[in-house]
Amino acid sequence: MASNIQYPSTPIDVLISRVQEKIERRQPIRLKLSGGGRLSIEQHVPFLCVYSEPAHGVSALRRWVTGELSVMILPAEPELQEWYKPLLRAIVEAQSKRFGAFFLLQLCLAMAPEEAAISTELVDEYKEVAAVVSHSLKGLKESPSPYFRVHSSSQILKTPIAETLVKRLAQLRLMKKEADVETVATRRWSLLGLSSQELRSLSCTSISVELEHPYVAGAHETAQWKELRPFFRGLMRVMKQAFFRFSRNHTPFEPPHYLALGRKAMVKSVRQVDAALARVNRTFEFLLYVTPVNDAVAWSAFQRSRYKKEPTFLYRPLGFEPHLLKRELYNIPVETIDDPTLAHLFLEKQEQLDRQITMLWDRNTPRFLFECLQFYGRVPETLQEEAKLLLNTLPTTTYKGKKIKPQEFVTTARNEIEAYRERWPEFAAEAIVRPDVSGVLVSQGNLLVGDKAEIPVSRVEALLHHEVGTHCLTTANGNKQPLSLLGHGLAGYEGLQEGLAVMAEYLSGGLYAPRLRLLAGRVLAAASVEKGANFIETFQLLAENHHFPKREAFTIAMRVHRGGGFLKDMVYLQGFLGLLRYLQQGGELEPLYVGKMGVSHIPLVRELLWRKVLQRPRLLPFFLEKPDVQERLQAIRNGKTLREMAQELVNESPSS
Known about the structure:
Elements: H1 12-24, E1 29-33, E2 37-41, E3 47-52, H2 61-66, E4 70-74, H3 78-99, E5 102-110, H4 116-121, H5 126-136, E6 147-152, H6 154-157, H7 160-169, E7 173-174, E8 177-178, E9 180-185, H8 196-201, E10 204-212, H9 214-218, H10 228-250, H11 268-283, H12 286-289, H13 295-304, H14 322-330, H15 340-361, H16 366-376, H17 381-393, E11 403-404, H18 406-423, E12 431-434, E13 440-443, E14 446-450, E15 455-456, H19 457-479, H20 485-488, H21 494-507, H22 513-530, H23 535-545, H24 550-561, H25 571-584, H26 602-610, H27 629-637, H28 642-649
Parallel strand pairs: 3-4, 3-5, 5-10, 6-9, 12-14
Antiparallel strand pairs: 1-2, 2-4, 6-10, 7-8, 11-15, 13-14
Helix pairs in contact: 1-3, 7-10, 11-15, 14-15, 15-16, 17-22, 19-21, 21-25, 22-23, 22-24, 23-24
């Protein structure tokens, strides 16, 4: 076997000399090592993660380790590992000399003896790996627990660093199973092959973490299994926390947060994938394609039928070939991205675009509703109960006073946009009157207003904060991020985005009873569609059971029945409730304006901000500067509920 090993052509002493020179000059180090290994040190820090490639092939864990700030991936062959030991030792010596101490953390995979047969069958093709692992585990009644062995000297295992590492590893879960952790005291487990005394002379803390689990060991590098991603992300977080604590306690290096210990560079492959996904996203405007272009004509016909005949809605013809666009979408090599956080965001977006293309292809067919259920999920019972309570609590008042025409509203919106542009000239939003738009919406960062829309004067300010101060602003902020998908919207961004927009209405003092009743009505209308109601039944539910004006009941019913059953309208109230919980748990508003993201993305965006991959938002909305906003915000943080807000509106009515 040893005769087949391809040893490096560069002598080890020459390689060591090159690496030492880069360390002295504080230059990044990126080297490919023989046998599939690599050395990547983006920033010189007092720690190094060393990952040993498993003998049975390239594991999915490698992808996650590759995203670390300072990492060395050793090839599987013991002979090559031995060959690279002097290089590893030189790195430890040089960095320990600079920082006064050094932390060497080894991570490797192991398999239990009874499962060793699986590894011999694994092959390089992902689908074959998946089939082998799936077949091998069919007989298991339940998934096994992840098992960690933490190896180090008895002295190091008693230190706070090791004890905290063990404690946090034990908190990791894989497929609802908590990890088991065993500590193993040994004198010579270090990759360097040095005794405890020799390691102390180098001021090196060396800990090895061995992970055993058949699913993990059987997952090929290209595997993106849903169950594995949270586990791997948690494992990398535990490692960063250990590096953070060691650095702050034992060296002059003081990172501001453990999340800052991640790669900062946006490599070429990341930029290319980001641009390619954005290009597909720009090919179609999903919301416009599912919005009828004849709502005014349909309403007139519905009136003439005395509300008994279902209206016919017409839609824009698709401006693309769905199968060709899907081919372009899946030609984007998301699997080549070795930054786990960015790869996760890209993979989600790729899947979202695929589903949206399918939904547009299936407009006005029974399939559309089922695909919409996959996309947005069912209408939660708890959300329906909140909506019913609002409709039973709030008075059936409507907006009183003067209404303004579309062009007048657009003029006001353009003044608002210009005020933002004075603060940031790159704020590129436009406000346009369109004959093919119903109501008011934002598309591609621009405000579109239907030529038949009439807006109550008392609603104008809140609507500007909703549309311009939230949707246009987050689009503009996101477009200027290094990750441009934040301008188009990460997968599943609608709930948080609409919740943030409704929050803008509330904090600015413009969330009145008719608006809150409207959001509640949309939830119950969406639930009726989910349960199989036709247009007439949904209309009657709103107009007769909940006393909405007939024109408003028609519009709500149109919105939830368009395309064949569109459930997005439930996310306004759902997103607002989610945002209330977020703020009451100590969440901050500012990071939410970085771009268009979902609730699940908040920790990922927070990480990317600490890593300086993303920048703080260039603009924040004007309403945050109003004197009474902080008072309302503090009331929310203190636990104010939606029901309490509704109760305040019972005796309050909007007027011009």
